[in-house]
Amino acid sequence: MLSYLLRRLIATIPVMLLVAVFVFMLLRLTPGDPAAIIAGDYANDAQIAEIRAKLGLDKPLPVQFMVWLGNMFQGDFGESFFYKKQVGELIAARLEPTLSLSLLTIILTVCIAVPLGTLAAYRQGSWLDRGIMGFSVLGFSLPVFVIGYMLIYLFSIKLGWLPVQGYQRISDGVGGWLLRLILPSVALSVIFVAFIARMTRTSVLEVLGEDYVRTARAKGQTETKVLMRHAVRNAAVPIVTVIGLSFAILIGGVVVTESVFNLPGLGLLTVEAVLARDFPTIQAVILLFSFIYVLINLLIDVSYTVLDPRIRY
Amino acid sequence: MEQQNVLEVRNLTVSLPKNADRPNAVENISFTVAPGEIVCVVGESGSGKSVTASAVMGLLPAALKPSTGETLLQGEDTLQASANRLRDLRGTRMAMIFQEPMTALNPVTRVGEQISEVLEIHTDLSAADRRKRAIEIMEAVHLPDPEKMVDSFPHQLSGGQRQRIMIAMALVLDPALLIADEPTTALDVTTQAQILKLVKEMQERRGTGVLFITHDFGVVAEIADRIVVMQNGRVVEYGDRDDVLRRPKEPYTQMLMASVPSMTPPDRMPRTGKNAIEVSNLNKIYGRTGWLSKDRIVHAASDVDLHVRRGETLGIVGESGSGKSTVARCIARLIDPTSGTISLHGTDIGTLPQSKLRPHRRKVQIVFQDPYRSLNPRRTIGQSLIEAPVNFGVAIDQALKTARDLMELVGLSGDALERYPHQFSGGQRQRICIARALAVEPDVLIADEAVSALDVSVQAQVLELLDDIRERYDLAMLFITHDLRVAAQICDRLIVMKKGVVVEQGPTKDVYSNPQHDYTRLLLDAAPGRDVTFGSDTAA
User: What CATH architecture applies to the domain B311-334+357-526?
Assistant: First the structure.
């Protein structure tokens, strides 16, 4: 197990290096001179050259890459062209809203989707099953921003129960933090509930036909426990896989939700950085996202060994 | 006063859904199981024997409904019991073990927990006491080192050990009735003998009534006190073991018993044809060695030498994991041998690269065990039959004509080429698989457990067909089987394998009458029902 973890961690290094090269090249090869952008519209050539030298942009690409990589390792992601602040600080400040939103959404999703899917499988063919599957088709077809605006209209404007938008730091009070996150996480979770409920249904249905479920019934076990202990645990591997992938997609997809609900998270930061051609920020955000993806994949694989004792690496 | 019966099935009828091939799964059946008695229900697939067991346990699928009759468990009708009452009865008064110990245990839960789950449902014992009871019952079913094994997962145990866990689970609360649904069918013959002995021991010691469901007359002969013979949902014969086995009255029972291959090999002329295939020093090693991963190596075949003459049937017998299928698959080059030579008409095909192998592929064909899964369900029989010849350059018209002839050769109508696999029975599908193998005119036919999944009456017919075909085409046949009765009847020579090594070989008759190796003797002794006369060996 330990050697497996070690191997997997070592295997992430080349992946991250590849991403780093890609990110570095992508921005160096796009047209548009960052030095000119920083210098502003009225700068002369000498000023631009000076900025270029200061940023190291006049050196050959491989040297630039090594310097850039070296800085990264020391936690120095450079200074944002646009905000004139350290990118590291910038990201740290924006991390909390994004992580809060994603975590809350995935918890909400799992709490709703797994029981719904299990119930649908258990009552296969009943009105309940059809209702749940019908909802899941609807969930797939509604875009997040439509759901978001509908929720804001209903719960914030008409009923006045919840704030329209904005974010409150967790350190300023859990109540306010949660209140402001309810609508965005509900809006975001709809499509994932639809997806994971379907997945759960299929997976549990398959397991319900297995011999050991019959064995459990032959022991005199109650239906609830047959479902919980024997069916869902065995159905867990594919379900956990999609939950993990959903979480990865979720973090990448917060851009839209954060814009709709005006949450100052990484999504919004990404949009602003792209619009401002803020290279250091864009680079850091992409690297961070890739790192999170790699980490989630690792967690999924490790969770297999916990869920199913037959899986050993 | 006579003891109350543990189980009385009276006039039980279970209806099938409207569109089924017959109105009832079981019809008007009656029998009893007394305490301390083993009653065997024997029949071919579709005879309704498992439906009967499920009806008693209240475990029928929703589509099947008992319409009349009663199943009295110590006088209480389980057909009328509420869902709650049924749950109380299961595990305490009636318990069941199943065919597949591989799948009947929950793979993600420790075996000890699965046993103590029964106690958790039905008793107030504390967790520590439950564990203690689990270990005790594991000891009672002779599992080695129960203190340690109690924390194992099912996949860490062998098939026989898993079946012992199932038995332990069923018997932990001393039920009055144990229903065993083909509990040894998936096991090796030596393991089967041990499990049968265990069931008998448990039943004697605890006075349990056992309803034992099987298709295997050998097992019946080994274990039954009384026998119920079923066919198409009806009881055709019901009586004491010796009456049914030694003096069967009904033609159906007589036919079934005659279909069971005899353990005595018939006299066969030694074959003198040319060698069609020669294998020497064949090795197959599975596993890998690598950085940071432990070396796990399995020697699936070690230094195997064999040859098959034209017109000859060579049997490879052995238990699961003996390497018999590995050898067959290497010869057909479905897997690549690690080393050794496989000489086909003087060409060594053991090491040929795929590109050069193609012309030789048609010369070796395989018929697999499971006729339900070895035909593509979305292609017609015709499409499946002409695929290989067309690949080798035969014109479609010509291939179709050959396919029609082959269908007739294997005893099916040439018109059936338009139909799909699901429209045929298991035996018919196996005939189709044989026709498919013959379509490319092979020299070597490998039958890998080709009759193991078939009912005895069908098995007898397919064996006869294989023998005919071998004769007619002068084929070299490699017959892989775990069934010593089948091997006795069809093979000219035998190879006995154990853990990848050939331990004995010789003419079939010699191996059966005078086995040299201990393992061969063990296998022959373990074959169930040796004291009863089956098949053609009249009063041996």
Answer: 3-Layer(aba) Sandwich (3.40)
